[in-house]
Write a structure and sequence with these properties.
single chain; alpha+beta; Beta-Lactamase; Heat Shock Protein 90; 5-stranded antiparallel beta sheet; 5-stranded mixed beta sheet; 12 strands; disordered C terminus
Amino acid sequence: MSGFLAGVCIAILPFVAAGFWLGRRTPRPENLGGLGTPVEHATFETLHTASLAAPPLRAGLTEETARRSARRLRTLLGTDALCLTDETQVLVWDGVGSHHRAEIMERLAGPLESGRGEAFRLTCEHADCPVRWAVLAPLTVDDRVHGVLVACAPRESAVLVRAAGEVARWVSVQLELADLDQSRTKLIEAEIKALRAQISPHFVFNSLAVIASFVRTDPERARELLLEFADFTRYSFRRHGDFTTLADELHAIDHYLALVRARFGDRLAVTLQIAPEVLPVALPFLCLQPLVENAVKHGLEGKADQCHIQITAQDAGAEALVVIEDDGAGMDPVALRRILAGEVSPSGGIGLSNVDDRLRQVYGDDYGLVIETAVGAGMKITARLPKYQPGVHSAARLTGGQGRAAS
């Protein structure tokens, strides 16, 4: 076996090297299918089985996830029976000897309290029951025992004790990753709530004031703006999905800009150039709207003449390239770096750092915002969005758009 495969095997599933699983599962040479030696074949098959058991556990320890992973875990250990418990009950029993549930539950107190595994002989009145020995291995996340993995076998085995402990540690890692996933989801939800809270009360007040100003002079115009306001707020406060499509995000931005233009008139000119092929790309919800709001704020700030904002979305191979640029007041690059680092809060509550953080969380550090600015030189914000990213998708219904340019 190559050094790399040996390292992976030892790091992930040491009980394979111990020989317990291999002793029961090593295939005949004529069935190897060209994959190498029996040890190499067993290693590949073990890692494959582990990879199949992992996804359910990444959702946490429940009856459903335990049921979906138990058969794979029992295959890894090669035991006659395996069960998973939480702190109060047996979640699943896979294999023979399920009448031992009550006895297993009576022995859980020790491992749950101490966090140490134990092995004991089962008492059984069934002569044909093949399981006579049980190994209890705690499932620990952040120094707290969440449950126990129980492996049952016909006889006592020191190798089984070690193997069950290693598999339990591997399961614990999956449960810890599940906790991290849940924490990440809660963080994203909190950040979206923060963005919603940052929708300026002044913007709401000014929008309603503009709508009211048209009620008598131009009722049809007031009606149109009221619908724009309703659509914008409905999108911003929707409750389903962490992700949306570029088409839907741009549609919400259209509503926002219609309200802003109604207030500022000719002082604000907006140009949009959108490639139709990038409209279905999924991206984090409320990701671009804060950037446009930032452009409006800094574009109009301190300017008596017209401010121009350009929004482009281009097809860049495996990515969609979104650029939002204004010719306004700009910003000191040092001050901007402090804002993105979270050292200071931006004036007006515009969530540049929020958006930058979420892009990095979803796509990786290479996909943070790229911002070019200087005092008096406007600001250009570039966001790169991978077209296809595992786990990133939107169930939003596409409205169907076309490339357009408006001013």
